[in-house]
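User: Can you help me understand a structure? I only have the sequence.
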Amino acid sequence: MIAAVDLPVIVDGDTGHGGVLNVQRMVRELVAMGAAGVILEDQVWPKRCGHMADKQVVSLEEHAAKITAAREAIGDARLMIVGRTDAIAPLGLDEAIRRGNAYARAGADLVFVEAPETVEDMKRIVAEIDAPLTLNMIDGGKTPRLSLEQVHELGFVSVGYVLTALFSATAAMARAFQHLREQGTSEGLDDSMVGFDEFTSLVGLQECYETDRRFRKGEKA
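Assistant: Let's start by predicting it. Here is the structure, written out as tokens:
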């Protein structure tokens, strides 16, 4: 994925896949891959989506140590650390704010408090955490759905609409399969699909054809 796009890629590192040694190995591999950042969260493994029920979190000290270990592993390289806490649901907003500040002191560049349930909660997070902040917008989740402008006005520096495309694609696929089952043909779906030529252009097929043509003819770039 990093190689396929020209944009900076922030990788979701979940809980770090183990202890501090696992975190450091993961970070070094991400640096070698050319990732722009990594998200590390304080849930108990196996983790759950941040807007699901019955989440559990590890101790503040355990996760702060992972963030510090990640910072050490980065060394002189460039990799942004996003310190995420899921403490609101199991322990309350006060503890989530306490953890956000602790993770910033441990070395996180951005702090991510998952699943605030009201705009007032978001305002408290911005006012009481001394670090740049990011936010998740999960369609149908616990956090009120706001626009980019509203999120930035509150004071968050970035926001992720991380499941919007997946939810949209799922709905489109369900409609397509239902249409095929009921009609026995894909005719009638053209307005809701990209065309063949548009798709091949999107994935860069013409460039592949041109490279293949040049080498078969012995031409240089």
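Now, to help you interpret it: The longest strand covers residues 80-85. The radius of gyration is 22 Å. Let me know which part you'd like to focus on.
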